[in-house]
Amino acid sequence: MRIVVCDDEPLARERLARIVQESGHQVVAQVTTGAEAIVAVKTQQPDIILLDIRMPEMDGVRCAQALNELEHPPAIIFVTAYDHYAIAALKTNAIGYLLKPANKDELLEALNKAKNLNAAQLNEIRKLEDPTARPIREHIAARTHRGVELIKLTDIYYFTADQKYVKVRHKNGIVLIDETLKELEQEFEDRLFRVHRNAIINLSFLDYLETLDAGQYQVRFKGINETLAVSRRHLPALRDKIQSM
Predict the structure, then answer these.
(1) Which of 83, 87, 158, 164 has the smallest count of CB within 10 Å of its CB?
(2) pTM
């Protein structure tokens, strides 16, 4: 694959380029700013760009937003020393978010993902079908003791409000994120459904609606022995949704 490496730190940039080349891929350009990255992408037409975030003049997030406006945007993999940009970065269609110093295995895993139809290409298809379509995000970013953890939306059972954070229950455990239920519900309205003011569920894991005593209801999930209460306010809409599935 043809790859552009963008980082204003020479040692970091050269290290990434070396790993890419040793893995059998081609580095078609090494650049130091977001503006240079845009020029390199336009002239070299790479498959992937490895993009730092904290750079002078134009940061990586703004650069990624500009790249997504191109006719043929590359797949974007962020490689940065900062974990707190993860949510903003992934909203730009990035298929990876690696923390420096990214090890070889992590980088190769991210590059292998790009061999398949990547998020930027999927977004281009959506633009052809609907020019007003929003970018696709397939992961939720959470800060954990390991750094930034990317959780596939298809691996998440439900989200619940937990004081000022949101708890994410997924196949490998539980993490906290600082997005709101309202934001998640609006962004993934075709895949998530609110069952309570404090809970939204992933419809693909909904098993059935269970009746309890005193007219109470709860939902059960496929794959885990857990339940969530359904409020009276959201019960009619949930019943309608289940009937339409």
Answers:
(1) 164
(2) 0.56
